[in-house]
Amino acid sequence: MDVGEAARLNALVVAVGRARDRTAFQQLFDHFAPRVKGYLMRLGAGNAVAEDLAQEAMLMLWRKAALFDPAKASASTWIFTIARNLRIDAIRKERRPELDPNEPALQPEAQRSADESFDWAQAEDRLHAALAGLPREQAEIIQLSFLAEKPHSLIATELGLPLGTVKSRIRLAMARLRQALGDES
Amino acid sequence: MSITHHPGDELLLSYASGAAGEAVALLVASHAAFCPQCRAAVQRAEATGGRVLADVAPVPMSPKAYDALLARLDEPARELVRAANLQSAVPAPLQPYVGTDFEALPWRHVGGGISHLPIKTRGGMKARLIRAEPGSGVYTHTHQGEEWTLVLTGSYSDGTGRYAAGDVQSTTPEISHEPTADAGPVCINLAVTDAPLVFRGLLPKLVAKFHGF
Prior knowledge:
heterodimer; A: 2 domains; 9 helices; B: 3-stranded antiparallel sheet
C-alpha cells in the first residue's frame, strides 16, 4: 500500500465520519471487509464467523468514524484495532482493557501534541518502510505475533529457537521501529 | 513522575497484537496510562498491525454481505465511549473492573498490614490488587510461574530496587522476592500471575518447606 492509497483510505473514513457518506463507506467495505475476514481466518476463525465479525467491524467503522483521527493512526491501523478487539470480545470472550483514546490526559506523547507539525501519516509510512527493511528472522517473529496468537514461548518452541532469541529479535525489531520515528526515548 | 521500570517490548507487542490475555492486557494498559513512552511503543506496534492487515490475503465476502450491512446502518448504536474519571487514582483501564475509589473496595485482609482483592478476568492469568500499609508491609509471597507487578500508589522496595507508581516489576520463581512497602502513601499494586499467589504470612512453614528456605 503506497502513501497515496493510505491517504485515500484515511480520507474515506473521514468522509464517513463527517457526512455519513455511503459511497465512501462502500469503498471502505470493498477494501477492508475481505482483509478483516482474511485476518480473522488466519487466526483460526471459520468462514461464517469471520464473515460475521468482518461485518461487525465494518458496522463499528460506520458508527465510530467520527472518532477517527488520521493524526493518530492510519485507517488500516485503526481498523486493525477494531478487528482485534471484536475478535477478543466475540471469540475469546474477554474484555479488552483499552486506554480511552479520547481522553486529553491520555494523548500519545506530550512531545508530539506540542509539535503541531508532527504528521502521523508520514510517520506510519516510515514505520512501514522500516518494517519492510527488517531482517527476515525479525519480521517473521513480528508477523507471527499478530497472526498466530500464541505466547512467544510457544512461537519459540515451534521455530526451534530458544525463548531468549525470540525476545531479542522482538527487542531489535521494536528498536528499529522506534528509530524510524526518531524517538530516542 | 519518572517511570524507570517498563513492561518490556515483548509484553507491549503482545498487548498491541491482541495475543496477550485479559489480565496481562489490563496490566499493560494500566501501565501505559502512566507512561507516554510505552503508549508511543504500543502506537508503533499497532501501526505494525495495520501493515499486517494491509498485507493479509483477502478472503472475499459473500455477495449479499454489503446489502445486509446497509440494512443495519441506521440501527441505534450502543454507547461506545465510556468516560473515565481522570481525578481518580485508579488508572482509566482499571476503572471498569474496580471503580474509582481504592478505599471503597472490599479488601480481604491477610495479616501484617496486607490485604488483597482478586479481579475477575477471563483467560489463563490471574489478576489481583495487593494493598500494603506503609512501612509495615513485608508481603513476601511465592508463585510458581512468571509474575508482573504494577505499582498504582505508593512504592515498595526489594533487593533489586525501588518501584514507584507506574513501575512494572517482572519476577520469575527463581527470584527471591521480598518486597517491603516504603514509608509514605499506602502501596497498592496490580499483580498478574500465571499461578495463584501464596502469601507467606498465611502458611509460612508450608511455603518454607516447599521452597527450601
